[in-house]
Amino acid sequence: MEAFFSSTLGVAIAEIGDKTQLLALFLAARFAHKNAIVAGIFIATLLNHLVSAALGVWLASAISPEVMKWVVGGSFIAVGLWLLLPDKDEDPDGKWLKYGAFTATVVLFFLAEIGDKTQIATVLLAAKYQSILPVVVGSIAGLMIASVPAVYLGEMLMRKIPAKAVRIAACILFCLLGILTLLGDGIVLKAV
């Protein structure tokens, strides 16, 4: 139970004000399907944190910091550029609206979690407790505790801020993180 509670508390605290919490706000402003966003956050976090807990320690020892820097930096830039793509609201058959919120959330959250402090915390907690399941369940619970309110309350906040401005600001933030990661010595990886 200690692994679960430590993971829940650690990840919930780490997530407050984190880029993925800001991403939850952005997605809440962009899509009307809040439950699909929450489900997407859950699936992306489950996949990301399972991989993190199972393979994180091995990856850290097997991949050079230089390669990891390029993977993480490139991922940040890719997410930033994807945020600029306009919504497909004009799609006459509504397929984008039906699947857009969930798919966009899964992909964006999964990519945003790469190199994120909550992913790193999951790796470290799994190594400390040598137990995958309670750490993964706890880290998912912590991330959901911090992100779900942003999804449901974010719409109220975002009504006052134009979606285009949020999309551009999010793009700039992710691209800046990517550039700083690529230029740095891993300092940004520790900071985000």
Description of the molecule:
The chain has 192 residues and is an all-alpha fold. It has one domain. It has nine helices and no strands. Helix 1 (2-15) packs parallel to helix 7 (132-158). 42% of the residues are buried. Mean pLDDT is 76; it is low at 87-98 and 186-192. InterPro entries: GDT1-like. GO terms for molecular function: metal ion transmembrane transporter activity.
Could you provide a short overview of the structure?
The chain is mostly helical and 192 residues long. Helix 2 runs antiparallel to helix 5, helix 3 packs parallel to helix 5 and helix 4 packs antiparallel against helix 8. One of its GO terms (molecular function) is metal ion transmembrane transporter activity.
Keyphrases for this structure?
83% helix; 192 residues; 9 helices; single chain; mainly alpha
Topology:
Blueprint: H1 2-15, H2 19-30, H3 34-62, H4 65-83, H5 95-113, H6 117-129, H7 132-158, H8 163-183, H9 187-191
Helix pairs in contact: 1-6, 1-7, 2-5, 2-7, 2-8, 3-5, 3-6, 3-7, 4-8, 6-7
InterPro entries: GDT1-like (IPR001727)
Family: Belongs to the GDT1 family.
Protein name: GDT1 family protein
